[in-house]
Each structure stands twice: as structure tokens, then as C-alpha cells.
Specification:
The complex is a heterodimer of chains A (269) and B (180). Chain A is built from 10 helices and 2 strands. Chain A is mainly alpha-helical and 269 residues long. In chain A, strands 1-2 form a two-stranded antiparallel sheet. In chain A, helix 7 packs antiparallel against helix 9. Chain B has 180 residues and is mainly alpha-helical. Chain B has a single domain, classed as Arp2/3 complex 21 kDa subunit ARPC3. Chain B contains 7 helices and 4 strands, in the order ββαββαααααα. The longest helix of chain B has 33 residues. Classes of the chains: A mainly alpha (269), B mainly alpha (180).
Chain lengths: 269, 180
């Protein structure tokens, strides 16, 4: 499994300029909307739209490929299991032992998998184009107590540090003849304990130093008005985007629940 | 743990650090399971450690947010909301029953936390993501192995750290700076 510490892609695009709160609203409403639809065409359409949005913001190809690579196993597993367990409809494509592969269940399985892809890409339109500082700032502005915002900011900040720490401790213990490959599964799992103990103690020491540093800067002093280095503000364009988002969301939700848009896996209505 | 309703510096620092530790343990430690070709990770070890050492609130944030960040950074953003809730509840429940307890108390809390997590993923995948019982059931096995490893490593880890690093008790009490 591959991972990256920071998903943010630094660019100067229209999407980077959008207020993070608007993007967060897009993620939330988009995810809710996606979960109400079951239609293959809608899933394909939303994937096209999110890809257009992501590429228009200047996000490089390899980021998009990385998401698809991570999603690949469930994109195979979900349709396969769905087809095996939920045969439906009259059209039988072929029969193999006890498994009856029907056209409708294939379509349904594929659209379920694509729905998860669509939700992932909706999230990544936000995460690829929002740096951690404005992300945390937007959550605080939306009412998260600043202490928990600080928790999130510090947590994100320390992930690369602790990853380095884990690597160093792991190599140090292996240099002292710790064998991680010997024995059965459970022995091997338990052999990680010396690494974890050393890493945890180091992490706890870090947290104590951090707490002392924050206390010495009088964090949590009552009656202090907090300021921030870089604030986020709604521009006129952000109001337009928000309005557009609300109109589109209500329209699609009405179509879905009044007229049954996207309930069938293949036909729109 | 908190001064009034707001967390103090100690709580902020240790929660943040545990979020990072849980996230790192999730994507840094990957042990192959020979029988299936799959992998297990140590995210749950981190969640149980956090919960048993620091209690429900830090367990909730450290577990939920840490695992959700790990999901996002690994590319599985669509699971992140479910992970946030399932691992958050797991950390909360495990911390509620297991904080400061001995091995037996922690085993009970581990069992409850594991059930909450497995049930949370199962129900979430079945009903919210609409994947059907077959796909939701396919996750139960790996999650179960994951939880077994979480307890098998997490509980000895808490005991070892309590022995090797006694200041942890002081951290988990949460020092409060009183202005004189």
C-alpha cells in the first residue's frame, strides 16, 4: 500500500481559491447525494465531473492514478461478490456451476463499486486543493473548538515525524538482532513489541514537551481573544458557488425522491 | 482530563500525538498474512493503547481521527467517514471500560471495543454504503483478525509502557496548571 503524508497540491487555480468551507459543503452534500443514487450512468457522470474538476485545478495525473490504484481491489471484490450473491433480472449472461451471472446484477455491482470511487474523488477535490492550515482553520470557523482544531493540526504535523521515528526504531531494534520474520503469525506479530514500546515512550515524551511548550505560552488562559496568522474569508464568488451548490443539491434530491431519478441501476427514471 | 469543558494543554498534546501514532501504525506496519495474501496493520494496536492508557475522550479522537487520516492518506477516502465513526466508537468504548484497568479489565474492554468495531463496519457497509450483506460479511473476517492482533499486542504494550515509563500515569491524569 502506498501513501503520501500530504495530499495537498500547491497550485494557483480557481478551486484552490475557493473557500475551504464551500469545498467541505460540496464533499458533504456530494457524499450524501451519491449514497441516495444507485444508477450506473449517474456514477459515471459524477466520476467524469469530479475528474474534470480535479484536472482543472492542476492536480497531476499521478495523484489521480494513485487513488485508482488504491481503489482497485474493492472495485474488483465488490462486483464479484455482488454478482455471486444477488442474481436478479431475466437476462442470464452465463451460468458457471452454481453461479448465475445476470446482466442486471453485474450493472448493479459495478455501479456500487463506482459509487465508492465517486465518493473518494469527491473527497479528493477538497483534499488535493486545500492546505492543512486552511483546512483546520475552516473547521474552527465552522464551530469546532479551537483546541480540537489545534489537536488536528498538531496530529497532521507529527505524522511524518513519527513515521521517521518508527523507521529509525525498527531499524535500530533489528540491528540489535530483533527478528521480525521468524515463527508463526502470532509470534511474528508479538515480535513488534520492542519496537512499539520504544516508539511509544518517545512519542509520549514528545507529547509532554509539547504540553509544556504550550503551557508556557499560556494556552487556554481565560479571557483571551484568539487571533490567527492567516484567516479565510468568503469572496463574492464563494457566495455564488454556495448558492449553486444548494440549488443543485435540492434539485437532484427532489428529482431523486419525487421522480425516482437514479433508483434503477440502468435506467435514469 | 479537561478543565471545565475545554481540553488543557496536556490533553491537546497527547491527543494530537496519539492521532499521529495511530495513523503511522496503520500505514507503516504491514504484516502479510500468509494464508490469504492480505495484510494486517497495527492501527487497532494504537487505538486500544490510546483508549486503555488515556480513556474514552482521547480514545475517541485518537482512534477515530487517527484511523480516518490513515484511510485518507492511503487513498481510501470513501471509507474515511465510516472509519471515523467505527474506530471512534471503538476507542471510546474501550477507553470507557478499560482505562487504568489490569489485564482482565482490559481484555473485557478489548472484547467490547472489538465487537463495536466489527459491528460498526458490518452495519455501515451493509446499510449506509448499500453493499449488501455478502460484501459486508467479507470484511468481518479481516476485521476480526485485525482486532485479535490489536488486543494481542495492544494489551501487553500498555502493561509494558506502564512498567517502563511510569510518567504515563501522570499524563493520563492530566496536569492542570493553576494560576496562583
Amino acid at each position: 500500500m502506498s501513501f503520501s503524508f500530504d495530499l495537498y497540491v500547491q497550485r494557483r487555480s480557481w478551486l484552490h481559491a475557493v473557500d475551504p468551507r464551500v469545498k467541505l459543503a460540496f464533499v458533504f452534500l456530494g457524499t450524501v447525494l451519491m449514497l441516495t443514487f444507485k444508477n450506473l450512468l449517474i456514477m459515471l457522470l459524477s466520476l467524469v465531473v469530479t475528474h474534470l474538476i480535479i484536472f482543472s485545478a492542476g492536480v497531476p495525473d499521478h495523484k489521480v492514478k494513485w487513488v485508482w490504484k488504491a481503489m482497485l481491489p474493492i472495485n474488483i471484490l465488490i462486483p464479484v461478490l455482488w454478482v455471486i450473491f444477488y442474481p436478479e433480472g431475466p437476462t442470464v449472461l452465463f451460468q458457471f456451476w452454481f453461479v448465475k451471472v445476470t446482466a442486471l446484477s453485474v450493472v448493479r455491482g459495478v455501479s456500487l463499486a463506482l459509487r465508492l470511487d465517486a465518493i473518494a474523488f469527491i473527497c479528493f477535490t477538497w483534499l488535493f486543493t486545500t492546505d492543512q492550515a486552511s483546512l483546520v482553520r475552516s473547521l474552527v470557523k465552522l464551530g469546532l473548538p479551537f483546541e480540537w482544531g489545534l489537536v488536528l493540526a498538531i496530529g497532521l504535523r507529527y505524522i511524518p515525524t513519527f513515521y521517521g521515528l518508527y523507521t529509525v526504531v525498527s531499524e535500530a531494534q533489528q540491528a540489535r538482532a530483533l527478528d521480525l520474520t521468524k515463527g508463526n503469525f502470532f509470534t511474528r506479530v508479538r515480535s513488534y513489541l520492542p519496537i512499539l514500546v520504544a516508539m511509544m515512550i518517545s512519542a509520549l515524551r514528545t507529547s509532554e514537551k509539547l504540553a509544556r511548550a504550550m503551557e508556557s505560552r499560556a494556552l487556554g488562559l481565560p479571557g483571551v481573544k484568539r487571533t490567527c496568522r492567516r484567516d479565510i474569508r468568503f469572496r463574492p464568488a464563494d457566495y455564488v458557488y454556495t448558492a449553486l451548490l444548494i440549488v443543485l443539491f435540492s434539485l437532484l434530491l427532489t428529482l431523486r425522491f419525487r421522480f425516482g431519478l437514479g433508483t434503477h441501476p440502468l435506467y435514469l427514471f | 482530563m479537561t478543565q471545565g469543558k475545554r481540553p488543557n494543554a496536556q490533553t491537546i498534546a497527547v491527543t494530537a500525538v496519539m492521532i499521529a501514532v495511530v495513523a503511522v501504525l496503520t500505514f507503516a506496519v504491514q504484516i502479510p498474512i500468509p494464508a490469504t495474501g492480505g495484510y494486517i496493520h497495527f492501527g487497532d494496536v494504537g487505538v486500544f493503547f490510546t483508549a486503555f492508557a488515556f480513556g474514552p475522550i482521547i480514545g475517541l479522537f485518537g482512534g477515530g481521527v487517527g484511523c480516518a487520516i490513515a484511510d485518507i492518506l492511503s487513498g481510501y477516502a470513501s471509507w474515511a467517514p465510516l472509519t471515523l465513526v467505527a474506530h471512534g466508537l471503538q476507542g471510546w468504548i474501550a477507553g470507557y471500560f478499560g482505562k487504568g484497568k489490569g489485564p482482565v479489565g482490559m481484555i473485557v474492554a478489548w472484547a467490547v471495543g472489538s465487537i463495536v468495531l466489527i459491528a460498526g463496519y458490518f452495519l455501515g457497509e451493509w446499510f449506509i454504503y448499500g453493499l449488501g450483506y455478502a460484501n459486508a460479511l467479507a470484511e468481518v473476517g479481516p476485521n476480526f483478525v485485525q482486532e485479535v492482533v490489536g488486543g494481542l499486542v495492544g494489551i501487553p504494550l500498555v502493561l509494558a509502557i506502564r512498567r517502563a515509563y511510569p510518567p504515563i500515569e501522570r499524563i493520563s491524569l492530566g496536569r492542570v496548571w493553576e494560576e496562583g
